[in-house]
Design goal:
homohexamer; 152 residues
Chain lengths: 152, 152, 152, 152, 152, 152
């Protein structure tokens, strides 16, 4: 999703598709290193082959994290990431798959005079359009009407 | 949480507290690099100082990812990360804060003859015990009663 | 610079200032690791203290590389990075300095029916507005008038 | 180039060829992470395939940065990287290509009683000897005749 | 080895086999970056092909370091890594090999009232069971009988 | 040690001192990520403070790995790292300490017509000259007298 505007300018139902990113073995290795999650499904090919997945796959949290890197986040308007709801890791993500984020504004929650929450249903898909991760994200966004605030 | 047993051996209400991990500037820089999320609140000190947070803070997804590295995940029993619900980034996480994960089994969902979902309410806390991230995770776990399956 | 349009839409003299990024010790360590440049001015505090710089400083190539991460590069229009001219590392960049890129379109070179080169004078500055790195970059950009080409 | 001597000991026209380094997918992923440059030509295989390059390629700045890691930089004599001139990214650098740096001293600029600038024309080549990046670098080097200075 | 108990509970002769980890190109690139060891046998495919090894191989120290990540280290009982003896890099470790650690307690050295050294013979093996690295490690471990000490 | 010559040109008793490298928090975080060793003494400040070390310290294997990056390894003559003996982690290495390697050739083992083993006693020291890690390393080195072999 493009979070590139003040809160008032989002419309429920608007849709967006992000650019893509290829999930590489190097990403999986790097994410294991950052998170500390070395579960063998991600870093042990011998183990992974014997599972239902048949090969090493990306951490669910890696795929979800890569999605956040595909958002457009305007420093002018975005305040902070607010929350996640009903995230499901629907399909395994293998090495070499190219993901993109399809999103739709699902709701707009007024919060206070200066900000609101943009609720977005997002599906992380692969190049064949298959859903990999579904879920809802909430982004805290400044209002245009906010008097010159913290950022001035 | 310690996911170190077959599905049948979890009890609703059991609790666990993980060991800790200090969130460093290097973690934030590395996570920006893996995720591609270079929102200035995380990597631009000048910008961050003028926000309500007053300093660079960790990505919410970094804190959540570090939590997964604090789980115990037995290769014998854990199948895959299944999902996340109602995750809220309650407090900002600054450089130098040491986080830990407090968790409680909230539900046990039978899924098929070979596996079930362990539902866990987790709170990521700092060294003062303040909640930083709350939420619920779902882990897909093998049953002990499963006939010798994919892993044999 | 925002490379977010077809070649025809740049105007000589137009200016832009990027968002910022704080150069951290972790960036220097990571860049040494990627480039293989472990010159002690960057990774040996004892050595660095005895130099004219008085402390560890960022690799010039790191500062220059961070600048490229501050460009806006539209996948629709940017073809490739074309070249660099007269880059000078004017001031050392210390740990904790926040850099930004000030740029001005200096020339527009028609190249072929489908593309042109946008020439940009750029100055990487710190939070006090001091020039750290000066130089000129050349970006190969598609023309709007290009018949549906490689990207269709 | 081997910057392993005081300024007085370089001769215009002397040549050098560095050892090699293979550019891997992991290098591209790491460089995207350090620089923040996630342009899809480098990290989105689906996008890259449809470009004139036909596949993901290394960032120009990565290739240039790897070259600096192939220099010999004597802590005794090298003061700092001074500048770059007329760098051109002549050919795309694909995953798996092994690069090396061919260089020739092009000029020697006296600067002050203690130091001078060694000007080097460098060509980064692949294993087939094809030029990938051409350009000129300037390195600030101590003089042998310098009275015991900052480094004593 | 599982260092998950107080010193008194180890028995000479007990054996353990760790889970596995696949050594990837990304690990080699990352280890070169952390250690600063860019010897071309690890990062230059053209060079490596002409050696007796015929291809890039992992740093011996990388394989040894990966082994430490496969130990179980209980924060409750492990004090520190004490030493290494007679480590031999027996076979080259190629990209894609999955390693595991086979270990056997070789000795138990009483050290003081609060701690002892567990001496372990370890062999790092590949998926075909071939020895890659042999050696002995020494781990400093708390005694159960230690009066409440530093960790209370 | 400078491994920059054929086997015949080393002399028992010759000494060398390497350049230095400062051990940073970023190195510790990166090494935890590469090795998978997230023992809390290295990554949990709250835990580390209560230990005898009083603060987070570097992994012993990190210090040892950094030392290998401080060797000079001539691609012409060095064949491979052969082994390690009697390595002892004598003193903890804190964040910010600058290490260097002091070494002395302790033995020369003829191995076959083409190569020999250079045995080196090494002490990794800090800026105050205190020993941090002691041990012996073995490097397999080509002979000058070797008929044109694998590398021609």
């Amino acid at each position: 999703m493009r979070f590139d505007r003040p809160f008032e300018r989002y419309v429920v139902g608007e849709r967006h598709r992000s650019r893509g990113r290829t999930v590489t073995e190097a990403d999986i290795v790097a994410f294991a290193g950052v998170s500390g999650d070395f579960f063998p499904l991600h870093v042990d090919e011998t183990y992974a082959r014997r599972t239902r997945f048949g090969r090493r796959i990306a951490h669910g949290m890696l795929t979800l994290s890569l999605a956040t890197g595909l958002y457009t986040l305007s420093p002018e308007w975005v305040i902070a990431f607010y929350g996640l709801d009903r995230v499901r890791f629907v399909r395994p993500v293998g090495i070499g798959e190219t993901i993109a984020v399809e999103s739709e504004v699902a709701g707009l929650l007024d919060r206070d005079p200066a900000s609101g929450i943009v609720v977005v249903d997002q599906t992380i898909v692969n190049a064949r359009g298959e859903a990999l991760v579904s879920g809802r994200i909430r982004m805290l966004v400044r209002k245009e009407s906010a008097s010159t605030g913290e950022r001035e």
